[in-house]
Amino acid sequence: MNAILDSQIFRLLRRFDPAVTTAFGCILLLLVVGGTYSSNFLSPEYLLQQLKVASFLGIIATGMMMIILLGQIDLSVPWVVTVGAMMSCAVVGHGTVGAILAIPFGILCGVAIGLVNGFGVAYLRIPSMIITLATNAVAQGLMVVYTGGFSPQDSASPAMRYLATGFVIPGLPNSVVCWAIVGALAVFLLTRTTFGRAIYGIGNRERAAYLSGINTRRIVMTAFGISGGLAALGGVLLAGYASKAAQSMGDAYLLPAIAAVVLGGTSILGGRGSYLGTVAGVMLITLLQSILSVMQMPEFGRQIIYGVVIIAMLLLYGREKLQR
Amino acid sequence: MINSSPLLRMEGVSKRYGGVRALEKASLEIWPGRIHCILGENGAGKSTLIKLIAGVVAPDEGHILLDGKAVSFASPAAANEAGIVCIFQELSLIPDLSVADNIMISDPPTRAGMIDRKQQRICAEEALAQAGAEDIHPLALVKDLPLSRRQMVEIAKALARKPRILILDEATSALTAADVTKIFAVLKRLRSDGMALLYISHRMHEIAELADECTVFRNGQKIETYKAGSKTNTEVVELMIGREYKNVFPPKPVKKSDTKLPTLQIINLSWTDRLRDISLSVQRGEIIGLGGLDGQGQRDLLLALFGVLRGCSGQVLIDGAAVKINSPTMAKSENIGMALIPEDRKTEGLMLPMSVRDNLSFAALHRISKGGIVDSAREQKLTQEMINLLAIKTANVDLAVGSLSGGNQQKVVIAKWLMNKPRIILLNDPTRGIDVGTKQELYVLLRKLADEGAAIIFYSTDYDELIGCCDRVLVLYDGKVTRELVGAEITERVLIASALNIDMEKVVHA
Amino acid sequence: MKDWRFWFAEQRGTFMAIAIFLMMFVIYISNHPAGFNANIVQTASNKGVLLAFVAMAQALVVITSGIDLSIGMIFTLTNCLASWLVTGSPLQVAIGVVVVLFVGALCGAINGAVVIYGRLQPIVATIATGAIYYGIALALRPTPGGTVDEILADALTGKLFGFIPASLVALLVVVLVVWIPFSRSVTGRAAYAVGSSEQAAFMSGVPIKRAKFITYTLAGLLAGIGGLFLTFFTYTGEAAYASGNAYTLFSIASVVLGGVSLMGGRGSAIGAIFGALAFRTIGDLLFVFDFDPLWQPLFQGVVLLLAVSLSAFGLLRIRNRLEWFG
Fold first, then answer.
1. Which residues of A touch B340 (CB under 8 A)?
2. Residue in chain C lying closest to B109 (CA)
3. Which domain holds residue A79?
């Protein structure tokens, strides 16, 4: 009995990863700073608005987290987001069937690109950074050909708009509900399933995972597929939010997604990290952006502060071990 | 040449890795103009000794004195500066650079800040000639050379540094007989030039030819230093073996007649040039040992069986039915039921930062889950069973497995596979670097598993274990099974003799 | 075997890149409506040289088995900086050029310091420093603008003796002054050694940290030279996010086409240059065949995807599956 009690205490302690705690500490700090700057900042409406903005990043970062847990990276996020948005809008034009299929079709396109990434990484052993850059370029090329280089005229379906801006639960935007569902699924997948165990195992030591009889290649490919699908879902929601898709609408999500995951304490080398940390990282990034815009910080300042904050946080707890 | 003081002296030097002592209060003197041979079994502490002298690792205690002055080298480069050059077993050559680049890597001739390639090539050719390897083109890329040529480059590279102390760690293991002859001539000339040489080899006849003095190590301790030729081969072998773990092994069962189909049978298994036509069969309840010097194909054989190696030829039969195993996933499947305890628990057996529980259940996830969802209660129950069965000492199952002691880590590796209830268990040197007590527990466990019906293939670099645990031992040399020993035939002398591939009679009567 | 055969084997990747480029260029020229003339070569070389500088920079870092995802942003930053500084009296122009190049090298040095001494993974570290460099570029040029000394710009983008593209000559000079000395120096060889096998390099007493640091710094310098040339071509500075990212991506593509191994230790900046020129020509091929220019990004993306997939052929040689995991 004692052992079981001990074990529960341990599990509880493990939740309080210093990185996650630091991230939440920073969130509190940002709230305090924002609150002193403008009392508006702490109003429920404003915070809810932040949560809504965060939900898009949150969904995209969920996929990125799985990839980073594997010790890989997905740089195809920008155009997968755009593909998700554009393709779902494109299908809407095709009558009722199109309107129904819009959301699943957008997501499927993302899954397809993700599977190509996964195949390259798992079966062809191409470094993920390179293959995802390449598929990003192909996705961009496809979208440029499709749209003729202009913002597409198609608009989002009512269902997409409802998903992004409606309210199933009064007071809580649907996009936040979406993120909550995706998050809950991710937590379940990572902590309760064999797939989740395998992801952590591969991220820690792919060789040992392979020798344990895990089909590492299939797991890696599946994870990339999920990441692509989630990035595309993010795109679908963004399209619903803005009522239409736009060129390079995904560019603004790559760096924040990686930053959110890494700032949430997930090791860029893989194998270590919790979803709670990613949630903290997403909120941290969103609040940082929001404060900078409330302060009317121009774009250049935001970019610089991003970069500096990420480097600083990584130096705090993301360093490689010394050799020898 | 006669010198009154040693060039290098080690006093009470110790080195530990984690909880394991690799070297314990070792002392050694190296004199100029002499070849000093180091003997010992695998894991006796020879490699650690060399790494200490060559600045690859730092000692935990004790002193190293060079010319009577205490030194401590921060890196291999610092040791090189001081005139100590080592030819390592794992080659230190850079594969994508040319032979000349590699030979002159630490101190290339330069002109106007740039490497003077002409001069470099001349120096490299000189060094190659000195090593008797004129056949190697200085512009060839190292990765394109066969292993034996690379070894010669490594030797030339060491000579180009004009060392005062030259250390050769199994430097001849990959060489052809002709190369060895040339190298010996070079070494003897260097000795007469006043260089101090430290020579590590498993080959008795090489030592007999070269050595001025010999030191025997065993279990991280220096046993004795003696003048070359003052002891017979038999006496040397006795010194190397020692008599430490007597009667720690469980009794072997009386052999029943083999009428049943073997659980695992291999016919003419070959893989590249590392495995040549290996045939063997293992019955239920039998423990088969793999013997021989390190690196004669034992590891490759286990990996080949486990589906890791590509392009194997030959047949594998499980319960008499031919199977083709392409991956560990397949190897562990229900109808084959194989388990491999890998060589390196830190990189192949465990995910060190993950919890004991996660590691224990990792290979048996399909047993504790339904539809891909882990059944926590079942996981808890099965992991606890394993912890009890192997008496794994851990405060709780949520601790990172990396925080356990080496012996307990190894138990976790074995336990994680036993959770799968394997019928065929392959063990790749499972007792390396763990304490005697744990070893003893493992021996008992192995016999118990065999009695319960498992077929076991057990590779060990420790001959005592092969003798104590195994019903039969196959000795491998250069990828071939050169000898099969059964029952009372398995003795230290025979094992060592057949491992060295020398005629047994000579050793016995030497 | 004869000496030259070894040399040839070592430079095979580079020769492949040259061959690919020549093939593409011949197809391009022979189908060009205006045929082969000095103006076409000048235009082609001006476009190609920009990417060639950035690709050289990337090649240096890749040789040490690192990666620099901020390279396009250094290129953009130095472009914006040059649009302020490289103007006025000849002395001011000269100082401007020096400062621009210094800033490029400084950016590279920061990357190097963060990766080596901060012990951060190059991917994340250079994404983050890239954001910083882009932010600074945006601060310098919130909207496109600025100017550059036109005499210098025209001299370096025009023709020498009426037919030799000056930008190509400039590229050649940079190769002779930066790449050749580096690749033949002790540090340059150390960079190759580190990329090939860091463990063996350590065992051999190679100055690992110094080699990496100098390599990252030189990469920054080369990207800075690229940024300077961009200013000479466009006469303005522009903090274009998409263009900076595209150059990073294309630099990696060029390096792969140029026969530089992404695992490090193998290839040369010269290969990367021809990889860049070939990559540009491939993009331009669509024009001479009257394809809609809209297809260009897709075409380039597919070429890149195929190029990186080619490396997978090496997998067929692996006999021990554990080698998959490095």
1. 211
2. C186
3. 56-273
Check if the beta carbon of residue B368 is closer than 8 Å to that of residue B374: yes
Residue B60 confidence class, pLDDT cut points 50, 70, 90: confident
Report C:135-154 residues touching A (Cβ under 8 A). Answer: 135-139, 142
A-interface mutation test, from C114, C119, C194, most A Cβ less than 10 A away: C119
φ, ψ for residue A159, nearest 5 deg:
-65, -40
Instruction: State the pairing for strand pair B424-428/B338-341.
Output: parallel
Whether A240 contacts A164, CB under 8 Å: yes
Sign of the C-alpha dihedral computed for residues B181, B293, B199 and B129 taken in this order: positive
Residue C200: which of B93, B117, B310 has the nearest Cβ? B93
Contacts of B189 (CB under 8 A, 6+ apart): none
Taking contacts as CB-CB distances below 8 angstroms, the residues of chain A near C315 are 124-125
- How far is it, in rounded angstroms, from Cα C116 to Cα A323? 12
A209 assigned to some structural domain: yes
The pLDDT assigned to B1 comes to: 44
Q: What topology is assigned to B260-337+422-510 in CATH?
A: Rossmann fold (3.40.50)
Contact C114 A311 (CB under 8 A): yes
Percent of chain A with pLDDT over 90: 48
CATH topology of domain B8-241: Rossmann fold (3.40.50)
pLDDT value at B208 more than 90: no
Question: Could you give the 3-state DSSP secondary structure of residue B126?
Answer: helix
Q: Is residue A46 part of a domain?
A: no
Number of domains, chain C:
1
The answer to the question of residue C102 being in a domain is: yes
In a domain, A26, yes or no: no
C310 in any annotated domain: no
Cα(A252)–Cα(A285) distance, rounded to whole angstroms?
12
**Counting Cβ atoms within 10 Å, is residue C211 exposed (0-12), middle (13-18) or buried (19+)?**
buried
- How many domains does the structure of chain A reveal? 1
Q: Mean of the pLDDT values across residues C304-322?
A: 79
C208 occurs within a structural domain: yes
pLDDT on residue B11: 87
CB-nearest partner of B362 from A6, A201, A207 = A201
Q: Residue C57: inside a domain, yes or no?
A: yes
Flag if A142 and C125 touch (Cβ within 8 Å).
Answer: no
pTM for this model (two decimals): 0.82
C-alpha distances in Å from residue A175, one per residue of A179, A187, C18, C130? 6, 18, 52, 31
**Domain map (residue ranges) of chain B:** 8-241, 260-337+422-510, 347-421
CA distance C58 to C69: 9
The secondary structure of A7-30 as a DSSP string is HHHHHHHHH--HHHHHHHHHHHHH
Please report all neighbours of C, defined by 3+ CB atom pairs within 8 A: A, B
B476 in contact with A, Cβ within 8 Å:
no
Taking CA atoms, what residue in B is nearest to A191?
B374
Q: What range defines the domain where residue C206 resides?
A: 11-304
Q: Is C86 exposed, middle or buried (0-12, 13-18, 19+ CB in 10 A)?
A: buried
Contact check, Cβ <8 Å, B374/A193: yes
The whole-number pLDDT of residue A323 equals: 43
CATH (domain of C15): 1.10.3470
For residue A241, being part of any structural domain is answered with: yes
